[in-house]
Design brief:
Elements lengths: L1 H16 L4 H21 L2 H22 L9 H26 L4 H26 L5 H7 L1
């Protein structure tokens, strides 16, 4: 959520600074994306993802803002609020569903299911080899 909010704020600030200058807006947006990518490479795990998210959130809002004709449409703030709200609501909903459905045994259950699947595959493979009648590829070559 932090990366989304930072990216949304950055887009609103860039729009406020470069209202009439589309080229400067795009150059600064590219610099923002590059800076976010640099920070994402320096950080680890969730912090790196948050930095990357700040960069492409700004690009997504800017692309919505530029529209089909390429000019700023004056809706930067509302687009930023809408994007940040959608992402935050999605994260909260996913957290609620995860909290309501995961009782802590999911990794163990998944490991057990994979072990059972592998055991069944190995058993059927062994049965198939046993039913082959003991013929090997060397027997086939000798008999022809």
């Amino acid at each position: 959520m932090i990366g989304t909010v930072v990216g949304a704020v950055a887009t609103v600030v860039l729009t406020a600074c470069f209202v009439q200058d589309r080229a400067a807006f795009l150059v600064c947006l590219a610099l923002w994306g590059g800076a976010c990518a640099l920070v994402a490479t320096l950080l680890r795990n969730f912090a790196a993802y948050s930095a990357a998210l700040a960069g492409y959130t700004a690009a997504i809002i800017a692309s919505d803002q530029l529209g089909a004709t390429g000019g700023l449409n004056g809706q930067a703030f509302m687009l930023a609020v809408a994007r940040a709200s959608e992402i935050c609501i999605g994260i909260v909903c996913a957290g609620i569903v995860l909290a309501g459905t995961d009782f802590g045994a999911a990794p163990r259950r998944l490991a057990e299911l994979f072990a059972a699947l592998l055991a069944e595959i190995a058993g059927r493979f062994t049965d198939t080899l046993a039913h082959a009648g003991g013929r090997t590829s060397a027997d086939t070559v000798v008999s022809t």
